[in-house]
Amino acid sequence: MYKRQIDDIEKIKQIEIYGSSKKGAYYSLSSFLEADKPYNGLYINKKVMLENVFETITVDGKSYNLQNLTTISDKYSAKEYICEIDLDKMQYMYRCQNVTIVKKIEFVKGTNILKIDYEINNENEQRSKVVISPLVTYRDQVHMKKASYLKFGNREIDSGILVNLSIVENRNLLLICTGAKYIKVDGYVSNVKHEVTNLELKKDVYIEDLYLPGKFEIQLMPNEQKTVSMYVSDEIIDLEKIENLSMNSATDENESKEKEIDGEYVELKKLVNSLKFFDDTNAISLPSNLYLNMGAVDEKNFLLYLNELLLDIKSIDGRYICIDELNKAVSKIETYVNLLSNTDEYIKKSDVYLKCSLWLIEAMYKLYLKDSESINEEFKEFICTLVLTTQKLVDSKSNNLKNLEVVSLAYNALAIYSDIFKDPRYESLAMDLSDKITNEFWDEQRRVLKKNSDDMEVEASVDMIYAVSLSFSPAKKEIRIKLLDTIFRELYTPLGLRTAAKSNKSSNSLVYPKYMAHFISANLNQNGNSYASKKIAYNLVKDLLLDIDKYVKDNVKYVYSEKGIDIDFKALDLYTTCEMIRLYSMFM
User: Fold this and answer.
1) d(CA 571, CA 553)
2) What is the pLDDT of residues 128-145, one digit of tens each?
3) What are phi and psi of 344, to 5 degrees?
4) How many other C-beta atoms can be found within 10 angstroms of the C-beta atom of residue 101?
5) Whole-prediction pTM value?
6) Which of 112, 268, 425, 528 could make an S-S bridge to 584, C-beta 3.0–4.6 Å?
């Protein structure tokens, strides 16, 4: 919340905001409603379609632009006209020349329709005018287009315009504004600039043109108040039905999630609330059975797909934290079990396939600990199949077992099998993997585990965390103590873990919050779950938890730089969000 002359506007200015229809469409903007990053836009559905809308107030023949826009040569800002910002309600108040505009942005519940409400109050003794200008494009998030590629067909409709963005893809954009007069323009805004800092800490600059199909004009008499609504959709809509629908400002699903969270856990509620953005826009699209057939599959693309799937699997525990969400987690796991079970044999030999399967067992075990009834016969069969696969890997001395993460996960899977089924038959196999950690990965002199057993250069890496953070650790106790000490000295920061050692001169000084849950899990595994242990662990992460809502609404940044550089090429990340939820839940 921001109020002029009370709050510091610079603090709220740095926050990234997001909103989702839960049907595929979403918006992504700065808290000033500027699309200053290439991935920003006011209406995005697979592609950026409407980059933004701006308002212009005209009083006594003079015009004042409420726009936030940067071009190659100029920077425009509505900062001086902002009176209030309420990010929870997505409501903005502007005041200029005795004209007040209250602007509210939200999706119509259950649809991909974006609604922008305007409450306009003209307190002048003379007429005034407000003009709304939509800026249209049709592009991927990082592929800019110039005016020559924005030759869209359009036709006027009642209270607005229909812009044909692509004949080939049959994509349209509907712009309607009730209570306003549509004026055709057919113009362009040129050389709009977007700027982000990448992982190499260098600036990437993107330049594009935007299409202005027309404007919506609202005339106000002296001392008149008006309410108008603008609708944005990629489908034809029935305006009368839409106006009767309740808005999607807070979904029943998220309310049910938050009810299970105690009132004192404010940050956790924020994180859980931010999950609604991912419900559909970041959902993994499972390939068809045809795609899984040997003759049709593209190995390279499928392995890229499996990498995306891997992150989604690793996100399960944090994404379905509440008890009433367990059925959804079970359903998702069943989907993954079927998918992985039907995968072709040659793909099953890859590290990424094994990681997907073994991380899925870890997710299933966490589910089992919450509700033992959740592990059905199909799950048990899948675990047994993976344990047999692990046995074959060990017996064949597979190259897969040269990777630290795979070995750690394989040991973990065997221990999970023993714990669930109370069956000791694989204990000796698990011991072989534990010995492998000691004999092939552990470097006593440097007190580190190699990322791969045949690595010639040995230094601390973030992959070491998995050897001590999973449900069952393959590392012997004396190694765990030394390893945690190395991780703390070389990788830990208050905002996350480094991916490379602090002592490595070539380190890029990047810090990732997504590893912090594993770091705390490793500490609690070692020191126990007592109140005192949790208090010590909390002090290690409190700076990160205090960063929630500081740069990203209801969330933390994807990555930080120890050099103090704002890395903003990617702001919101599902896996990071889920790991933050998992981290916070450890202290409940």
Assistant:
1) 10
2) 999 999 999 999 988 999
3) -65, 150
4) 20
5) 0.85
6) 268
